[in-house]
Amino acid sequence: MRQTVSWPAFAGHLYAHISLITAIGGPIELEAAVRQVTERVSDSVRYATNTSRAVDDRAFIPKEVRELIREKIRLRRQWQRTLNPASKAEYNRMARRTKVALDEFRNNRWGDFMVRAPETPSEFWRAVKALKGQRVHVPPIHGARSVAFTTEDKAASPLPPRTKRKPSPTPLSDNAARSTRTWT
User: Fold this and answer.
1) Is the CB of residue 109 less than 8 Å from the CB of residue 131?
2) pTM for the structure as a whole
3) Most buried of 67, 87, 109, 117 (most Cβ within 10 A)?
4) DSSP calls for 32-47
């Protein structure tokens, strides 16, 4: 379960239900006031907390593959504790078995998707677009007065090409030359 707290709702509920304490006469009144503030804060947290079911990607992985992953993690921990070469070999074997099982599961899932693939080209490309990652925005090359779109405009850009730039040597200051150490 996943719990999230809406802090604006918490603050609004607390503000509406807490009363200011005017005078505390002794330790008994102090204890009562502390208890009251604690109850009001707890009530406000309960009021502002939403509980939802967490989406777990592992729930979509078959039970056999999850057990292989669990065993691989156990073997890795064992090897890290003991540093025994036999444990490392066993861990490597299990890691390969787990990788093969995960690859087979992913290939089967992809095959199922392709079997259920939409028939029309527009629906197919919509599905492909959903599978692709986010596009990376590449900013345009700016010319002297406008955005350069053609090769000629790019060639006329005031910035020289990167391949022709040479680093300029930075002269050492007098302080840097004096601070060199001589090791004997």
Assistant:
1) no
2) 0.41
3) 87
4) HHHHHHHHHHHHHHHH
